[in-house]
Specification:
Elements: E1 6-12, E2 21-27, E3 35-44, H1 47-54, E4 77-78, E5 82-90, E6 102-105, E7 108-110, E8 119-122, E9 134-138, E10 142-144, H2 152-156, H3 158-171, E11 179-182, H4 188-199, E12 203-208, H5 213-218, E13 223-226, H6 231-238, E14 243-248, H7 253-258, E15 262-270, H8 284-287, E16 292-295, H9 301-312, E17 320-325, H10 329-338, E18 344-348
Parallel strand pairs: 11-12, 11-14, 12-13, 14-15, 15-16, 17-18
Antiparallel strand pairs: 1-2, 1-4, 3-5, 3-9, 3-18, 5-6, 6-10, 7-8
Amino acid sequence: MSTPETMRAVRIRRHGGPEVLEVAEVPVPAPGPGEMLVRVAAAALNNTDLWTREGAYGRPGDPTALSGWRGPVDFPRTQGADVAGQVAAVGPGVDDGLVGRRVVIDPAIYDADGPDANPVGLMGSERDGGYAQYVTAPADQVHDMTGSPLTDDQLATLPTAYGTALGMIERGGLREGETALVSGASGGVGLALVQLARARGARVLAISSSGKVDAVRAAGADVVVDRALDVGEQVRSDAPDGVDVVLDVVAGDLLADGLPLLREGGRWVVAGALGGHEVAFDVRRLYLHNARVVGSSMHTRVHFDLLMDLARDGAVEPVVAATYPLEDAARAQEELAHRTHVGKLVLRP
């Protein structure tokens, strides 16, 4: 397929509020050696977009430093980690067999070539992302999803939210028959956690606001815990023997006060800090009960391959809350920050 010379993209030239997002006409990137060029059909929004734009990640030794996902941002930067689209062209050394195929991009930048390498960078922060009509990506991270029953909008919701969720579940060792507690259950990662934990055969307790109970229960939660009430009391009532794994994107007071909710040998997996990033807890509740607190950042290649297999089989059904044209990226990010929706917001370039 032929590609134009220029395209529309939404970029940031500095950290700040939604006003720093600008729509620009820029050259279509050329795929380098080992890369593919993907025409973007849908790009989902994530909290990482907000925090990268704000520079809110901090750095080791300097938590207040303005920073992208893993370090200084090279401006101008096109945002957007989550992309579904169609392969438009390939770079030198790449088989053109996927040209024209419907695909999803693994947005992680890994620290090694192996299947269990750690993500140390992210498309949309450490390299240009999918808030654009075209984007390049390493060929081995472009996954053929032509046969998936999911729509392009749904496929675009998978990489960060579902990738992060599956990484948490895998690192927490959640098994069939165990009890999982999911925080932030109405958000993108939270709903993914509910769906994936239920698909694994776990009993799922989900923490959410009372106005979103029906949506969270529809995603597969066995019990919905009202976050406005005493969370600990509700969890102890519904899981009197404790929970095996907490899948937590909130942290803050929930982690500080909640360790006693774990069973002996339980695992508390943290992949976000919506409730606060500074936490103090009674360390005796950790070592006396052989509990583990596990940090989880996105996914590995193995996790992402497993996620793509689930999506090809239609084993997950992402919820799309709303779609926006590319030019409305700032308004979409403002809506994301309000957190009044259930599911994912998607741009359609």
